[in-house]
Amino acid sequence: MNGPAGSFSDLRDRTISGVVMAGVGIAAVWVGGLWFTTLVCLLCGAMVWELTRMLDPEAPFGKAEAAGATVAVALLVFWMQLSGLWLLGILALAALLLAWRFPRDRGIAFAYLALIIFAGLGLIALRQGFGWEWVLWLVLLVIGSDIAGYFAGRMIGGPKLWPRVSPKKTWSGTVAGWVLAALIGTAFMTPLGAGAGLIAVSVLVAMAGQAGDIAESAIKRHAGVKDSSDLIPGHGGVMDRFDAMIAAALMVLLLVETGLVAALMV
User: Fold this and answer.
1) Which of 111, 110, 75, 117 is CA-nearest to residue 96?
2) Domain ranges for the chain
3) Pick from 37-51, 66-80, 120-134, 144-158: least confident
4) CA 244, CA 222: separation in Å to the nearest integer?
């Protein structure tokens, strides 16, 4: 480490941005309905805009903006008009068509486009089908594990998790994220009416979030950029802030759909 000043030089901007995002997010989760759905769609559109700019830096002006707007509108409209396999199929087709417009890295583009779109769909469905308490649990898991990793990594340090892909991440920060996720799961057992299995689910979701963070780091390294954009002071871009959230949301839906949540929460 470079000392306290170097280690925490970005803490002020990061904290202010985090507080603002948390306030907006918690308010949207509480209100639900069209407000929450619209916010999720806008965030997905912003992430697609950033992904397009990273993987297709020579694209003419307006291409990235059009891709982001297309995803935001499509997710909102299709969610309101379709359901079941029709909804899943049309969104998968949208991801495929958008990825085909990339001059290269189409496989990477399709995989991450699909992750963004289906995670957005998952967040909307989670709020509508399970209620605000479950979404709050998910949000706190992602934020909590990130904060634990941030402070543990800088104060404890130690071996790097995967230096070639994400040079700042340490094993101490990763494990600290798991520990805090377990504590959050314990705290939410009563509010969610869940058994001790929720602790294991919480750790799994935190792991998925950390994997999402690493996946985005790999894309940035592949594209040769430090941040996905500079939209959020102290955090970089929307992908930099929500990469863990979308992966965690997808993990929750997979656990729910496969029945593993019910089995773990007995």
Assistant:
1) 110
2) 32-130, 132-266
3) 144-158
4) 18
